[in-house]
Design brief:
The protein is an alpha+beta fold. It is 27% helix and 22% strand. The strands form three sheets. The chain has a four-stranded antiparallel beta sheet with strand order 6-7-3-8, sandwiched between helices. Strands 1-2 form a two-stranded antiparallel sheet. Strands 4-5 form a two-stranded antiparallel sheet. Helix 1 packs antiparallel against helix 3. It is globular. The chain starts with a strand and ends in a 14-residue tail after the last helix.
Length: 197
């Protein structure tokens, strides 16, 4: 861990010199603080969302709708984390999204996040627009505020771990494995490494 402003923080696992707003496919995982199961539970191998989970789902759906350059291949909300398989598309010369012939699949608990919140000048300098880190930062902030309000909790306490996991998907085999990992995540909850039990 590195010392920053007299506090220890986790080193970033981001790939150095990679533009995380560039065209590629990304596997993203966000985990709740202390792996607390806030979003619902698994019953009969399916995720059952509680009110917190419905907030997460609603924000994911908003993100899917507003992020024109992003294609959400698959996603799942789990009791204490979410997985997203997202492709950032290249803009065409007319500033429209290129069309891709991609087969889509519906998974029980899928979706994207709201960008209505304005970033502070500090965040604008540190997060590139339309990047993975910008999306994650806004998504965490918006969902934390809504869930803390629902729970009557202090809004300064994030419901999320400070970091997140990302993986750049470089080939079809990896894409396929991740796609089905996400799809089958509720069925495999008992053996999930993020399951606190």
């Amino acid at each position: 861990m590195a010392l920053f402003k007299n506090k220890y923080r986790t080193e970033s696992h981001r790939l150095k010199n990679w533009d995380y707003s560039s065209q590629s496919i990304y596997f993203i995982t966000l985990v709740t603080q202390n792996r607390k199961c806030l979003f619902g539970s698994i019953k009969n191998n399916q995720m059952v969302l509680n009110d917190n989970g419905k907030i997460i789902e609603n924000e994911l759906l908003k993100s899917i709708e507003i992020r024109e350059r992003w294609f959400f291949h698959n996603w799942v909300i789990m009791p204490n984390h979410i997985h997203l398989l997202v492709e950032i598309l290249e803009l065409s010369t007319k500033n429209n999204v290129e069309t891709h012939n991609v087969e889509t699949h519906n998974v029980e608990t899928h979706c994207s996040a709201s960008l209505q919140q304005q970033l502070s000048p500090k965040n604008i300098l540190s997060r590139k627009p339309n990047s993975i880190s910008s999306f994650v930062g806004i998504f965490k902030s918006v969902t934390t505020k809504q869930i803390n309000s629902l729970l009557n909790a202090d809004n300064s306490d994030s419901i999320w771990q400070s970091n997140y996991h990302d993986h750049i998907v470089r080939n079809y085999n990896t894409f396929d494995k991740i796609y089905y990992y996400i799809k089958n995540n509720p069925k495999n909850w008992d053996s999930d490494s993020i399951n606190p039990h």
